[in-house]
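name: query_chain
kind: protein
chains: 1
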Amino acid sequence: MRLWKYLLLLCERNRKNKNRLPLICPIVIYHGSKPYHAPRNIWQLFSNPEQAQKLMGEEYQLIDLQSISDDAILQKKHLAMFEYLLKHIHKRDILKLWENLFTHCQHALLVDKEKGYICIKALVWYSDAKLPEEKQAALERVISSHLSKEETATIMRTIAQKYIEEGRQQGIMQGMEKGMEKGMEKGRQQGIMQGMEKGIEKGKIEIAKAMLVHGAKVSFIAKITGLDTAFIASLQL
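structure:
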């Protein structure tokens, strides 16, 4: 997995400046004490390597909604609402899109009702983010005109809870980022201080060695450098 991460990072780095990805030859130099038995390709990590390679290594499946007619989309039992809204989400009048959704997707709406309006909640969450703030109340009115008050309240309450949770998560992430920045800065300062301390200590030792060569007494060297007399004596060995 780590090898694939490196390969993808290299591809991502080169993709910024070029239209085509570079060819990368992965080479692993192993120097462990035991024989190497790890999988040689990512497919061997799956329970069914052949199926994994076929599903993930070949061309992905494409569902181009723009090439599918509205009639074909609306005939689907479960995905009609999802695909219809996603196909037309870029239109300016999202409120009218929701009106059409309720009008043309009656069967899918009944199926979604049995599942607690999972689909409707997801679509409201998705389209609500694309609506100007002044039109968000209008979207709630469109929904309430097709569903009961209780159902509308449940759906909108779920959306509100998601906004609250999203805000809470953003606050947590921002707090973590600030904490990491402070920690990194503190670690950097500690590293500088430790480096300076090590440099000073090394300098004292070099001075002590030079003084010993010139015949200075251990007690005198200890007064000059601040080093322990036993340690200075060990430098003579």
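note: The chain has three domains: 2-57, 68-147, 163-234.
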